[in-house]
Amino acid sequence: MLKDSYGRQIKDLRISVTDRCNFRCFYCKSATLLSYKNREEILTYEEIERLARLFLNLGIRKIRITGGEPLLRRGVEQLIARIACLADVQDLALTTNGFNLYQKAQILREAGLHRVTISLDSMKKERFEAITRSKDFDKVLKSVEAAKQWDLEPIKINCVVVRGINDDEILDFAEFARSWDLTVRFIEFMPIDEDEDWSQDRVVTGAEILEILQTRYQMVPRGLVEPSATARNFDFADGRGRIGLIMPVSQPFCGQCSRIRLTADGKIRTCLFSLIEHDIKSLLREGADDSVLTEFIQDTVVKKEAGHRINEPDFVPPPRTMSYIGG
Ligand code: SAM
Ligand code: SF4
User: For residue 16, how far is its CA from the centre of ligand 2 (angstroms)?
Assistant: First the structure.
């Protein structure tokens, strides 16, 4: 079992398979491209599978494949198939911007993927294009449809709400959740953007979002399925559609955090906001055996921070931002 020094059990692993992305969401990446890692710096599928197996042996039960844009990496379905075959994977999910999921939904499902989370920040095509600096709005909607068709459920839509940008669309997203009978998760904007343009006043809090939802709907809070869940979940009174509020800024959930991350270039991160990373790739490539790697993972987990420090005056953003870490 993986336990940190605060007694939190670590059960949830996020694996980034690439630092590359074809979108440039303003709250995540700069408009201009910084450099990407070279191919040889990125963990191979064999290496990822081996580490995933060791993490699972230590009590990890949920694995999320992310990036960058994970569906940009060639043959990612082969990695999904390898991980899906490992013992003890209770939940295997993927987060994507949806640009080509409609082409891959079937193959991912057949490879053993359980479910998807698709990012979508606006229901308005032009605004979507301005936010993501891409032209793929119709493809993302097609991907939502494909995820339904291939039963990659429960489907979640991630919507980062930024004041003055898309906070007038909360009710439109609620209607979307209801018409597609899926979960829309509103996420508070976090200070982990490449442009360092974040400020507290641009954060639309979960409480504000709930207030807006309640002007039209009776929102029924769902009991906590898992205390470590990132979202506070709500049903609509008639049972169609669901809403999640992810509030890392206004209501940090660090005390119950069960997550750990593996970056595409083989670093373990104990927190999204960690200032340091733990290099497991070097060990792996030096030929370390499973017991050495297992011990390294255990020792790293013990170093997990008590929490992020977003709201502290001396907060320092991490040196690598969301798309390079793996959201
Ligand atoms: N490219 C994929 C995607 O966009 O779904 C996966 C990686 S992305 C980094 C994972 C999630 O992080 C997305 O849902 C995105 O909206 C979210 N994200 C990125 N930057 C963020 C920020 N500054 N604040 C809150 N969420 C952010
Ligand atoms: Fe947008 Fe995801 Fe790419 Fe970041 S990694 S720019 S959130 S699509």
Answer: 12
Give the span between the Cα atoms of 242 and 209, in whole angstroms. Answer: 14
Per-position DSSP letters for 35-66, written without gaps between them: PPPPGGGSPPHHHHHHHHHHHHHTT--EEEEE
Q: Which atom of ligand 2 is closest in space to residue 95's alpha carbon?
A: 2
How many other CB atoms sit within 10 Å of the CB of residue 102? 20
pLDDT tens-digit series, residues 23-54: 999 999 999 877 899 999 999 999 999 999 99
The end-to-end CA distance of the chain, in Å, is: 24
Would you say 266 and 279 are in contact if contact means Cβ atoms under 8 Å apart? yes
Could you tell me the residue ranges of all domains in the chain?
Answer: 12-325
pLDDT tens figures, 191-250: 999 999 999 999 999 999 999 999 999 999 998 667 777 899 999 999 999 999 999 999
Question: Do 109 and 92 form a contact (C-beta atoms < 8 A)?
Answer: no
CA distance 235 to 154: 14
pTM over cut 0.85 = yes
Interval 307-321: pLDDT, tens: 998 988 889 888 888
Q: Which long-range contacts (CB under 8 A, 24 or more apart) does 216-220 make?
A: 216/171, 216/174, 217/174, 219/243
Is the pLDDT at 129 greater than 90? The verdict is yes
* Alpha-carbon Rg for the chain in angstroms: 19
Mean pLDDT of the chain: 95
Q: Assign residue 225 a region: left if phi > 0, alpha if psi is -120 to 50, beta otherwise? A: alpha
Range 12-325: architecture per CATH: Alpha-Beta Barrel (3.20)
Closest CA to 130 of 240, 241, 31, 269: 31
Residues 235, 213: Cα–Cα separation, whole Å: 11
Q: For a substitution probing ligand 1, which of 15, 26, 95 has the most ligand atoms within 8 Å of its CB?
A: 95
Distance in angstroms (rounded) separating the CA atoms of residues 165 and 167: 6
Q: Among the atoms of ligand 2, which is closest to the Cα of residue 160?
A: 7
